[in-house]
Amino acid sequence: MEAKKRIEELTEIINQANYEYYTLIKPTLTDQEFDKYLRELENLENEYPEYASPNSPTKRVGGEVIDKFKKIRHRIPMLSLPDVFNEEEIRAFDERIRKSGFHPEYVCELKIDGLSGSFHYEDGNLITGATRGDGIVGEDITHNVKTIRTIPLSLKDKIDIEVRGEIFMGRTTLAQLNEERREKNLPLLQNCRNAAAGSIRQLDSKIAAERKLDTWIYHLPNPEDYGIKSHFEALNFMTNLGFKVNPNNRLVKDVDGILKFIAEYAEKRPYLSYDIDGVVIKVNDLEMQAALGYTSKHPRWAIAYKFPAEEVLTKLTDIIFTVGRTGRITPNAVLEPVIVMGSTIKRATLHNEDYVIEKDLKIGDVVSIRKAGDVIPEVVEAKTMRRTGNEVAFKMITNCPICGSLLEKKEGQVDHYCMNTKCPARHIESLIHFCERKAMNIDGLGEKIMEDFFNLGFIKSITDIYHLEKHQKDLQELEGYGKKSIDNLLEAIEKSKENSLERLLFGLGIEGIGDKTALLLAKKYKTIDNLANQCEEDLKAIKDIGAILAKNIHRFFDDVDNLELINNLKDLGLNTTYLGPEEKYDENITNKRFVVTGTISFMSREEIETVIANYGGSASGSVSSKTNVVIVGDKPGSKADKAKELGIEIWDEEKWSSVYNNLSSNEK
Predict the structure, then answer these.
(1) Distance of alpha carbon 454 from alpha carbon 468, whole angstroms
(2) Which of 114, 349, 511, 657 has the fewest Cβ atoms nearer than 10 Å?
(3) Is the pLDDT at 543 greater than 80, yes or no?
(4) Catalytic residue, candidates 26, 36, 111, 346
(5) Confidence tier at 486 by pLDDT (50, 70, 90)
């Protein structure tokens, strides 16, 4: 019943918005808010078709027709185009067409921010002009259309034709009109699009004439009647008839061409003399268009890419609190999902108590959102003028949301902390360690993301990492995560199952076991089961292990919870066997302890230490009396000086190169 109730709420919101936008010309919702609600309704109706109304606004193309104008039925419906918001959706559009067996070229055109119109000619003379209306029936605006100087009253050829385009107001025109209205103490026109829509629907054509409206013609509904084979040809045909067709269009071969066009006009957009809000992409070949056909609302052969909004509005539905691995408490905004710069945003950090108070945020507020640095969602401000009185004031919590412990705020600091060292949230640190580069190397599960996933309940244990695919739908609404980034993350998780045993041993966080000791154990025992079955005395006998590490290892594998974790990881398909090269012998390296300092030009320190380990040597980060060799590269620092003081053998880059090349030649 919750879905049914939400569908009814959204239907009411969208119907009211359509009435205010199309009928009153006084919109109260931004484009981004309207798109957000419409998309949510479409998704709910797809999921719960039994609750979809036959009169749902998703089944309508335009808005309500008012009775003040004569109604005109369009001979060919004026359908709208489906909106897309990012590269992923553009590629999906292209892929769908190619899967239908076609290899399309596309025409890219600027999406003019104005009012759609249809213009009908008989024997070359303008007969009627009409608005889109609901796509089937529009309003007769002929008397105002005739005042638009870019609409020809007579064509060069005496033909019957209908063309469609966008009625708009230029930026300079709007500025001049507002200057005149300011001098007369009249309300200023809000923007070019609203000014054009209000002007074309005036009963008095004198007012429309004063507004100096303009047009770009972009569509010929029945090109086949004129022997035309492509949309690009149709644009040229209409240009030759005397219609004003935007020259900023381009025929492209593929998606890369589309993306290049979009990027180009995203940069040029501020410098155009008229407003655009996106790019229209159409299959060029008309036979291909006919084969692809239509849905009840849209053509299947065209889409409208909408430029990302720099700042959009949505509702702050709640403020929740998360706990970091250090115990720091962070308030987070829960938002009605909204698209910002191509990504769906559902949450945004509010940093700390002072931040929320300073911005005067209340639950239920309409707030503006933007992406700070084009990456992190940020709440800019509350739109206090839109408050209804039902908003709930923010109140900072006093207890940890995870363990319930009393929070502390240290003097002179802005953050609150949970001081309970046994708080389950502290477990985040072990999860972060498991995913680190030297451990399981799961790219995309860094500290901040892991904190979010833990607090949201997606990952509470290591095994949950390997069940993350169950939350794909939820992930797409987090911090701008799109399908591509989620796919990359899930791929990295799946790939980690193939890691060699030493990475898993290091990732499990056995006390005192670093990556080098993990490699030593993996090489010696080959499988995790062999290691688990070793007694403490046998472990202690291994060179570089000692009594303390032996006890830690034995204690870890003696814990039934740890054994259960390992069995679960096996069931999930994780490798528990050493996959690296077998240990080799070289008199220069085997059984020697090395320190690498400075920069070797042809190998990284990590690569050198791997070679040393493969030949039975060990590498340390500090020089001591137990060190046998110090390999010195460029800018070595104090370690080289200490080696000299202790009389330790020093290899420069030339010496290491000689040893390494000798190893390589022997392997061949």
Answers:
(1) 11
(2) 511
(3) no
(4) 111
(5) confident
The structure tokens 């509350």 sit at 382
Residue 412, judged by CB atoms within 10 A of its CB (0-12, 13-18, 19+), counts as exposed
111 is catalytic: yes
Average pLDDT over residues 9-18: 84
What pLDDT, on the 0 to 100 scale, is given for residue 67?
58
pLDDT tens, position by position, 146-186: 989 899 888 878 899 999 999 999 999 999 999 998 888 88
- Cα separation, 27 vs 616, in Å, equals 74
Mean pLDDT, rounded, of the chain: 88
Q: What is the pLDDT of residues 226-248, one digit of tens each?
A: 999 999 999 999 999 989 999 99
CA gap 621, 345 in Å, rounded? 44
β-pairing, 71-73 vs 362-363, is: unpaired
CA 78 to chain centre: 32
Contact 569, 507 (CB under 8 A): no
Say if strands 115-122 and 71-73 run parallel, antiparallel, or are unpaired: unpaired
CA distances to 119, 132, 592 from 158, rounded to whole Å, are 15, 25, 96
Kindly list the distances between the CA atom of residue 95 and the CA atoms of 80, 100, 167, in Å, as whole numbers in the listed order: 21, 9, 33
What does the alpha-carbon distance between residue 132 and residue 230 come to, in Å, rounded to a whole number? 24
What is the model's pLDDT at position 65?
Answer: 44
- 477 pLDDT band, cuts 50/70/90, is low
| Kind of pairing between the strands at 629-632 and 593-597 | parallel
Spatial CB neighbours of 634, under 8 Å, sequence gap ≥ 6: 598, 599, 600, 601, 653
pLDDT of residue 22 exceeding 60, the answer is no
Compute the distance between CA of residue 509 and CA of residue 494 in angstroms, rounded to an integer.
20
Nearest CA to 332 out of 347, 345, 346 is that of 347
Under DSSP, the state recorded for 141 is -
DSSP 419-485: --TT-GGGGHHHHHHHHSTTTT--TT--HHHHHHHHHTTS-SSHHHHTTGGGGHHHHTTSTT--HHH
The pLDDT value recorded for residue 532 is 92
Interatomic CA distance for residues 205 and 193, integer angstroms: 18
Side-by-side strand order, sheet with 629-632: 618-620, 593-597, 629-632, 649-651
Q: How many residues does the chain have?
A: 668
How would residue 24 be classed by pLDDT, with cut points 50, 70 and 90? Answer: low
Helix axes 653-667, 605-614, angle to 10 degrees: 50
Residue 105 Cα distances to 226, 231, 353, 354, 435, angstroms:
21, 10, 54, 54, 44
- Whole-angstrom distance, CA of residue 60 vs CA of residue 542: 76
Q: Which ranges of 66-214 would DSSP assign to H, the alpha helix?
A: 87-99, 142-145, 171-183, 192-200, 205-210
| DSSP secondary structure letter of residue 364 | T
Q: From the centroid of its chain, how far is CA 613?
A: 42
- The arithmetic mean of pLDDT across residues 453-464, rounded, is 89
Structure tokens at 8: 């009814």
